[in-house]
Amino acid sequence: MIYDLIIVGGGAIGLACGIAAQKANLNYLIIEKNCLVSSIYNYPTNMTFFSTADRLELGNIPFIAHSDKPTRREALDYYRRVALDYKLKINLYEKVEKINKNENIFELITSKNIHYSKNIVLATGFYDIPNLLNVKGENLPKVLHYYSDPHLYAFQKIIVVGAANSAVDVALECFRRGAEVTMVIREKQIRESVKYWVKPDIENRIKEGSIKAYFEAEIVEIRENDVDIRVENNIISIENNFVLAMTGYQPNYAFLENLGVFLSDDDRKVPFYDQNTHETNQKGVYLAGVVCGGMETNKWFIENSRYHADMIVEHIISK
Length: 319
Ligand SMILES: Cc1cc2nc3c(=O)[nH]c(=O)nc-3n(C[C@H](O)[C@H](O)[C@H](O)COP(=O)(O)OP(=O)(O)OC[C@H]3O[C@@H](n4cnc5c(N)ncnc54)[C@H](O)[C@@H]3O)c2cc1C
Fold this sequence. Notes:
Blueprint: E1 2-8, H1 12-23, E2 28-31, H2 38-41, H3 72-85, E3 90-91, E4 96-102, E5 105-110, E6 114-122, E7 129-130, E8 143-144, E9 157-161, H4 165-175, E10 180-184, H5 199-208, E11 212-214, E12 217-222, E13 226-231, E14 234-239, E15 242-245, E16 249-250, H6 253-258, E17 285-287, H7 302-305, H8 308-318
Parallel strand pairs: 1-2, 1-6, 2-3, 6-17, 8-15, 9-10, 9-15, 10-11
Antiparallel strand pairs: 4-5, 5-6, 7-16, 12-13, 13-14
The structure holds flavin-adenine dinucleotide.
């Protein structure tokens, strides 16, 4: 069997591509290595989206939430219902390990099978690979690049690294659940991009000293019971139980490069694709969702990238 389209990744945008393919009567398959919308599943337990529910909708299925901004739990319920209502063809817990191209047909070697397709969409997101601190001790179990629940850190001395939305949310939530929070921040201040309704909260907690913050500072070494921080030209050591490195994530570049997708040669490492069709420099290879932004991981969201699906499918059927 040769599919018209295989979509790699069953996140929100992979589902959007599946819906568009189904509406166009394409013979398609979505392949997801974890559970459905696994990035959202792995978001902080108490997370609330900054988008209103209507902006996260797919396939004209209404997203009704308890307040205007839905929670992670509501989003999981919603995207399950979308997959169910559309009876999307999706293989879960199957990882795409390698993609070869023979003539004009792609061969996708997965953890369970081999599939063939005329076109592929990479909707693989960026949440699998954290940006590392690259310091001694980063491999200790107390250093975490993903955050789930503040209860784990109650009455513990924690360091939160970063100054963007995730770091700020983690710092505030843990502080309010009894953690002793220190932020280590490379920049001079909390990022301007932090949600406008949250920024004054963190700035005031820092000002009043409830949350300690070292600005223009970086961790230089992590040990079992303490951490060394460079502040200006001094090294200070503070007692510590956990380090939560909220330093962002990056797309799987090895995967893109193996397929021969060009990347911009600046720090942004943006993969090349046609803005109108989302086809990359490799014929038949399309990009959808947040992977399109490369290291600019705050450029694409569900609300603005769900439209990629229709552009891709329109191009495929026009060929
Ligand atoms: C805390 C937080 C809050 C956010 N709030 C909002 C918001 O309010 N509004 C908004 O629009 N966006 C928000 N976002 C961003 C939004 O979650 C992402 O834009 C969205 O998840 C991107 O969808 P995607 O399908 O492109 O990628 P993902 O959701 O990351 O999906 C990619 C999928 O590909 C799978 N995959 C990767 N490699 C393979 C492989 N080799 N084989 C098979 N499967 C593979 C992964 O397991 C994953 O399930 C938020 C993000 C975070 C972190």
